[in-house]
Structures are given as structure tokens and as C-alpha cells.
């Protein structure tokens, strides 16, 4: 398959890239400042330019999404708007605009996260964004057949505990390799409208 991989330079994206490439797929990497194609998908015009540059694909995989982390009392409307643009609208547009570019029977795999179900202090914007992505996946799946859409919802990675562990007290981390398998399942499987929780 020819797969567009957004966020390929990140820790998760790099692991997804390595695994999908090893399974014989052609990976086209996408990032703001690195990758085969460089586009900012937080801007719908950037997503349009991305699809124009990429041409037809069999799957779109997202391993990127930015949200601010601040205590609730310090959050401003612009912070929630940034979370919506950075993680929700960006991925919604990948699907909406991608319908004319992804092959019939192809798929979209989006990223949400544990904070949709297990909130943390200073994580309200991320919880909001993750929940919205998951609701969107379930709704979009009933309209885009024969194309498919799923989300991967991981908890904190074992490989990120040194940097982010204190923000996720008591949450058991998971190895990146387990998270990547959820991406493989979404891309190569047959299900749609699923949220693959990796806890």
C-alpha cells in the first residue's frame, strides 16, 4: 500500500514508519519541517496542498496532534481553539478532504489518547480534543464506506516516561511496539469506526 504518514518525525511516527515499511508498504512521510512532503495540516489549505502533492494513496495515518497543557484556571479560549485546530480539525480535514484521494477500501487511522477517558491535571484541552476525535471516528465510519476510519488511543509510552511520567501519576505505560500494532491492525485489517485503546 501507498501510505501517507503524518507526524513521521516524532517518537510514535518513527516507530509506525519503521514497522509499516518493514511490512512492505510504501510510506510517504509528512511533517511541518521534515519529511518527504512538508505541510501544516493544522491549516485546511495545508491539507489540500498535501493531497495535491501526494496523489492517490491507499491509507492515511496520523501520529500527530498538538494540544496545550495548562491548569484549567489558566486556560483561555484561544487555548481550546488551538487544541481543536491542532488535534481535531487537522484530523477531520485529513478524512474530509481525503475521500477523493484515498482508494476505495482504503483507510484513515487517527490518533486520540488516554486523556479522553482518564483525565489529568492541566490536560482539559487534550481530553476535549481526544474525545472529539473518537466521536468523529464513530460518526464518520457510517458515512465513508467502503473507506474505513479508526483511531488509536494510547496511554503514555514507556519510552516517554522519563520526560512525561510525572504528569501521568499511577498510569501504567505501554511500549511503543504495542501502540504500533494497533496502527497495523487499523491499516491492514477490516474494521471501521473503532477506537483501539492501548493501555
Automatic annotation (TrEMBL):
GO molecular-function terms, A-Z: oxidoreductase activity
PANTHER family noted in UniProt: DIHYDROANTICAPSIN 7-DEHYDROGENASE (PTHR43477:SF1)
InterPro entries: NAD(P)-bd_dom_sf, SDR_DHRS6-like, SDR_fam
Keywords per UniProt: Oxidoreductase
Gene3D superfamilies for the chain: NAD(P)-binding Rossmann-like Domain
Domain of life assignment: Bacteria
SUPFAM superfamilies in the record: NAD(P)-binding Rossmann-fold domains
UniProt cross-references to CDD domains, sorted A to Z: Lin1944_like_SDR_c
KW Disulfide bond (keyword) present: no
Entry-linked Pfam families: adh_short_C2
Species of the source: Streptomyces silvensis
Protein name: Short-chain dehydrogenase
Stored NCBIfam families: PRK07578.1
UniProt family annotation: Belongs to the short-chain dehydrogenases/reductases (SDR) family.
Amino acid at each position: 500500500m501507498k501510505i501517507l504518514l503524518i507526524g513521521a518525525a516524532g517518537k510514535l511516527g518513527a516507530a509506525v514508519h519503521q514497522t509499516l515499511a518493514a511490512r512492505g508498504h510504501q510510506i510517504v512521510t509528512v511533517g511541518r519541517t521534515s519529511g518527504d512532503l512538508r505541510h501544516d495540516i493544522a491549516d485546511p489549505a495545508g491539507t489540500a496542498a498535501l493531497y495535491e502533492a501526494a496523489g492517490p494513496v491507499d491509507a492515511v495515518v496520523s501520529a500527530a496532534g498538538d494540544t496545550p497543557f495548562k491548569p484549567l484556571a489558566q486556560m483561555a479560549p484561544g487555548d481550546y481553539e488551538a487544541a481543536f485546530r491542532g488535534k481535531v480539525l487537522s484530523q477531520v480535514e485529513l478524512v474530509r478532504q481525503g475521500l477523493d484521494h484515498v482508494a476505495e477500501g482504503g483507510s484513515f487511522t487517527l490518533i486520540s489518547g488516554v486523556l479522553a477517558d482518564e483525565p489529568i491535571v492541566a490536560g482539559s484541552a487534550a481530553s476535549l480534543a481526544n474525545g472529539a476525535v473518537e466521536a468523529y471516528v464513530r460518526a464518520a465510519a457510517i458515512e465513508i464506506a467502503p473507506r474505513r476510519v479508526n483511531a488509536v488511543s494510547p496511554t503514555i509510552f514507556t519510552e516517554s516516561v522519563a520526560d512525561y511520567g510525572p504528569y501521568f501519576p499511577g498510569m501504567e505505560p505501554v511500549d511503543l511496539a504495542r501502540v504500533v500494532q494497533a496502527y497495523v491492525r487499523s491499516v491492514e485489517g477490516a474494521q471501521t469506526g473503532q477506537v483501539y485503546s492501548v493501555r
